[in-house]
């Protein structure tokens, strides 16, 4: 009798210890995000200081020893033509990408799910998803090869005598944003179709059978069955996409742009890199970065709030 | 059921459009490959489209003998293998307790990780932190900051939540500890999702070039993509602005193509085998 109570007690204790071991699971992840995410958040104080990297022996010491300047860095920001231009470019480029690229994966998914031949469907999906896995360095090299001054397109146009001088696709302010939209579409459209393909394959096939009985053709089936069935997915992804408005594509632009196209191509994050790291104007760079982060946060939270309101389902 | 005429036309148009899209993806690779296999005269005279002209392997010979390329390759393999392994350990360890309804403080910790996804200190504080930690010119600066992604962690956590609780309970009755359950039940049952997330991490590490630009100064530690990035520079400026250097730049055209192609081969070879995993894993992880 006594021993069973003993073992029960032991078991209880052990279960207790075992339960608390779960907290140790979190330790590595927590250490990582504290050091590499929360500590840099504290570094935001640089935006409110006249930061001098040489004020101390280490960056943290320099931050402590630098003087507070209140909102001086932000005043500098909003009086800076390059900053205002970069802000405008960020919004415009992002908007172009949404307007021209958001609908394409939906159309693509509708087309892919229409394919009955399995081998063809598999192969085309394999090909279309591939560019997502390449870096913007590689994608830029590919586009440069095709559209560069000596690339295929310019060679063909020259041979057809449509132009006598190469079109500088990468070095023309009127073309650059188009290049950004096209290359972003080339890289991500296939990948972005995945979620729509999943949504479409989840539609009840009986709906289509019934529609066919009633004599509906494919176009009608798309308009009256497919689109309405995936409309909540479409709206949700649209809200999330708009929430990411301030992400105009740093890696893409960093690789593709040059000083020739700053006018139409320079965005906030590329400006932060050039002024902050390149120009070592840390206060300016941090302030511009903080502005970017805050606006982005407000947009994402707004988007998530809308999603929760309408779909009872948020980003997290 | 017989397809109507208009439906047949629709199907044909779909096949044509999709095949065109497919070609648009493949052709740039063919052009790159053709350029890398053609000699300088053919490239600079614009003779190369999608088939090598004046075939030569000299660009590849150059790449194979290029020390910086292979050093980059080694660094990239190191950060990809070590980074992916560590990422998977940390990500699954974090996801496990957060997937258990009984875990107290679940919501609090979840929020800690989600905040990180929504807001960051920005480039400059991160850059200064690496200096502060003395990680400049150290390969770990390319691994540690990106070791855990909240997005991937949530994907894993959501999948863990779909596993039947009954399994856990019966293991508990048999006296298994949380760690044993995690290793012998949770992980083996989640392989497709884990493969997907591992692929995401691996591709992320393989493709990262920017931290190499920020933190690595000695060429022998530079990751491959950072080296490739340096090959892109100076190529966009309109031809008439470059004229004195044109000849020099052109000689690098095939070399750049060969370097980029060689660096992309591992992805091109591995990717079709992994594809069946990630589509499955992605869909399963995002559905609750």
Question: Can you lay out the helices and strands and say which pair or pack?
Answer:
The complex is a heterodimer of chains A (316) and B (288).
Chain A: H1 2-25, H2 27-42, E1 49-50, H3 59-65, E2 67-68, H4 72-78, H5 81-101, H6 103-114, H7 118-129, H8 136-147, H9 152-159, H10 176-201, H11 205-213, H12 218-243, H13 250-256, H14 262-265, H15 268-278, H16 282-311
Chain B: H1 5-36, H2 40-44, H3 58-65, H4 67-98, H5 106-118, H6 123-132, H7 140-143, H8 150-162, H9 165-173, H10 178-189, H11 191-207, H12 210-215, H13 224-232, H14 239-242, H15 246-286
What do you see in this structure?
- The complex is a heterodimer of chains A (316) and B (288).
- The relative contact order of chain A is 0.11.
- Chain A has a two-stranded antiparallel ribbon with strand order 1-2.
- Chain A has helices at 2-25, 27-42, 59-65, 72-78, 81-101, 103-114, 118-129, 136-147, 152-159, 176-201, 205-213, 218-243, 250-256, 262-265, 268-278, 282-311, and strands at 49-50, 67-68.
- Chain A has 16 helices and 2 strands.
- By secondary structure, chain A is an all-alpha fold.
- The model of chain A has no long low-confidence stretch (mean pLDDT 91).
- Chain A has one domain (76-311): MetI-like (MetI-like fold, Orthogonal Bundle), CATH 1.10.3720.10.
- Chain B is mainly alpha-helical and 288 residues long.
- Chain B folds into 2 domains: 5-44; 64-286, MetI-like (MetI-like fold).
- The two termini of chain B are 36 Å apart.
């Amino acid at each position: 009798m006594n021993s069973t109570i003993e073992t029960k007690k032991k078991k209880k204790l052990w279960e207790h210890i075992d339960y608390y071991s779960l907290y140790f699971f979190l330790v590595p992840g927590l250490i990582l995000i504290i050091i590499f995410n929360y500590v840099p958040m504290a570094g935001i104080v640089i935006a409110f200081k006249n930061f001098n990297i040489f004020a101390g022996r280490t960056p943290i010491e320099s931050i402590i020893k630098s003087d507070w300047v209140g909102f001086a860095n932000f005043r500098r920001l909003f009086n800076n033509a390059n900053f205002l231009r970069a802000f405008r470019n960020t919004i415009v480029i992002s908007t172009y990408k949404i307007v021209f690229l958001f609908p394409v994966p939906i159309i693509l998914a509708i087309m892919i799910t229409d394919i009955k031949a399995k081998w063809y469907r598999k192969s085309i999906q394999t090909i279309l998803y591939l560019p997502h896995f390449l870096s913007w360095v590689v994608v830029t090299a590919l586009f440069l090869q095709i559209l560069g001054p000596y690339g295929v397109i310019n060679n063909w146009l020259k041979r057809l005598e449509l132009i006598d001088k190469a079109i500088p696709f990468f070095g023309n302010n009127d073309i650059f944003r188009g290049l950004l939209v096209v290359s972003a579409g080339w890289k991500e459209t296939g990948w972005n179709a995945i979620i729509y393909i999943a949504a479409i394959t989840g539609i009840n096939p009986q709906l289509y059978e019934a529609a066919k009985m009633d004599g509906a053709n494919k176009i009608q089936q798309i308009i009256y069955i497919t689109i309405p069935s995936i409309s909540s997915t479409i709206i949700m992804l649209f809200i999330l996409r708009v929430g990411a408005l301030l992400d105009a594509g740093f890696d893409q632009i960093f690789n593709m742009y040059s000083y020739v196209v700053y006018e139409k191509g320079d965005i906030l994050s590329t400006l932060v890199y050039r002024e902050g790291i390149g120009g070592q104007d840390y206060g300016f760079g941090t302030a511009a970065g903080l502005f970017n982060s805050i606006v982005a946060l407000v947009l994402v939270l707004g988007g998530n709030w809308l999603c929760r309101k309408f779909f009872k389902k948020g980003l997290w | 059921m017989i397809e109507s005429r208009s439906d047949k036309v629709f199907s044909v148009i779909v096949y044509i459009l999709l095949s065109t899209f497919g070609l648009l993806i493949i052709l740039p690779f063919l052009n790159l490959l053709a350029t890398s296999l053609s000699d300088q005269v053919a490239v600079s005279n614009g003779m190369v489209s999608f088939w090598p002209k004046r075939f030569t392997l000299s660009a590849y010979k150059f790449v194979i003998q290029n020390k910086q390329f292979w050093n980059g390759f080694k660094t990239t393999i190191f950060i990809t293998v070590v980074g992916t392994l560590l990422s998977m350990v940390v990500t699954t360890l974090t996801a496990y307790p957060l997937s258990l309804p009984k875990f107290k403080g679940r919501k609090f910790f979840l929020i800690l990780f989600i905040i990180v996804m929504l807001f960051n200190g920005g480039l400059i504080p991160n850059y200064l932190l690496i200096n502060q930690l003395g990680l400049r010119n150290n390969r770990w600066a390319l691994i540690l900051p990106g070791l855990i992604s909240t997005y991937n962690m949530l994907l894993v956590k959501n999948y863990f939540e779909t596993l039947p609780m009954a399994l856990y309970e019966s293991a508990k009755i048999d006296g298994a500890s949380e760690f044993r359950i995690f290793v012998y039940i949770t992980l083996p049952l989640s392989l497709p999702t884990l493969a997907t997330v591992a692929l995401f991490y691996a591709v992320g590490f393989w493709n990262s070039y920017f931290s190499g630009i920020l933190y690595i100064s000695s060429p022998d530690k530079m990751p491959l993509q950072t080296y490739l990035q340096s090959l892109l520079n100076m190529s966009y400026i309109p031809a008439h602005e470059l004229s004195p250097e044109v000849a020099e730049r052109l000689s690098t055209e095939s070399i750049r193509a060969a370097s980029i192609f060689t660096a992309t081969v591992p992805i091109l070879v591995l990717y079709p085998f992994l594809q069946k995993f990630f589509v499955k894993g992605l869909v399963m992880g995002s559905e609750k």
